[in-house]
Amino acid sequence: MNAKTLNGPHAPRITVLGSINMDLVVRCTELPLAGQTLLAQSSSEFCGGKGANQAVAAALSGGEVSMLGAVGDDAFATRLINNLRMHGVNCDSTTQHDGVASGLAIIAVDLSGQNSIMVVPGANSKLSKSSVQAAETLLKGSDCLMIQLETPIESVLEGIRLARRYGVRVILDPAPAPSEIVPSLLQVDLICPNETEASDLTQMPVTNAKEAKAAAKQLQDLGAKNVVITMGSEGAILRQGDTTTLIPAIPVDAIDTTAAGDAFAGALAVRWSQTNNLLNAVRYANAAGAIAASRAGAQTSIATQKEIEATNEIHSK
Hints:
Blueprint: E1 13-17, E2 21-27, E3 42-48, H1 50-60, E4 64-68, E5 70-71, H2 75-86, E6 95-96, E7 103-109, E8 115-120, H3 129-134, H4 136-140, E9 144-147, H5 153-165, E10 169-172, E11 190-191, H6 195-202, H7 209-221, E12 226-230, E13 236-240, E14 243-247, H8 260-275, H9 278-293, H10 305-315
Parallel strand pairs: 1-4, 1-9, 2-7, 5-6, 9-10, 10-11, 11-12
Antiparallel strand pairs: 2-3, 7-8, 12-13, 13-14
């Protein structure tokens, strides 16, 4: 699994294989019970999906990003694609499917911040193995492939297979955590779960740094070359080879953590591709995640490269 290193001054070429959703957020005083009708306070529409969020994060961090995904033939499709392009993401490998709706997440949020979420995969379920094979040339020319688990597992596995064939670095954000682990799914250069996902994958408790270190070793034993477990305000655990390091979090007043993990992943992919220094990349990504957590919204909370570098510089002194 010898990943490419950058030759020359070009921006890192990042391909994101993942979901594209429209998020419908409804704010209410309390979450409704079964059979109950409530009057909500407001509703908003946001472009989202873990794949699209990470593509935007990587692009804002300075990557040359391509989105390998799918949308439907509804009114949301054009908005979703235009939003990605507005952020500098190439959508030539994003396919549109007739007779199906784009991915949709319906999110109810009460006054305390508790939420209830229903996700309709829609066109995301159309991202097939053959769709990934059709993008083989794109993958071959990439420096890094980013994947999550909101699209069919066969498409994810095909992406991993092709990336390994061409020596392309693979970063897996295992969200949502799979109910059953396919061994080849973890044959990646880096797996980047949060505490809950790490616990689900290893069947081990992950509530503190000591437990996270044990889980990171277990994930490495299961096939991942490197492991980063993000733990919010507790920081991140990085395991490389036989070395485990705790990278402290950057303290912020968290307002909305919706896309903090996606901001972290996108920034990490770009910086790791630029420097080939994973520890440096995790520190940089910590700054990206902290900024996102301190702002409201998903993609609207993601910071630019300039903002991340400024925050990273302040907290590295």
